[in-house]
Every structure is written in structure tokens, then in C-alpha cells.
Specification:
By secondary structure, the protein is mainly β. The protein has one domain. 0% of the residues lie in helices and 36% in strands. Strands 1-2-3 form a three-stranded antiparallel sheet, with no helix packed on it. The two termini are 16 Å apart.
Length: 50
């Protein structure tokens, strides 16, 4: 996960599960980009922590 200025704020490697709940409680208020990668997919999502 990256802030909009490009600073990495979180890196998690998860293997063998289809669903994972990620806590963003410790993040500062702001805009973030979440990158999800697997062998068959790469997706980026924008979200706002209020």
C-alpha cells in the first residue's frame, strides 16, 4: 500500500487464502493506493482513510 506521494506505508505477503481483511486503523487520514498481485491478476485500488 502506498500513499499518493509514493511512500510505501504497508507491505503484506499473503499466501493460500482467497479473503483477507486488512486493518487500516493505524494509517493517517489521507488517500492511498492498494496494490493486489497474484499469479493471474494485478489490481490497484484507490481509497480514502477519513
Amino acid at each position: 500500500m502506498f500513499s499518493l506521494i509514493g511512500r510505501r506505508v504497508l507491505l503484506k505477503k499473503i499466501k493460500g487464502i482467497n479473503t483477507y481483511q486488512l486493518s487500516v486503523e493505524a494509517l493517517e487520514t489521507g488517500n492511498y493506493i492498494l496494490n493486489i498481485k497474484s499469479d493471474s491478476m494485478h489490481k490497484s485500488m484507490h481509497f480514502i482513510k477519513e
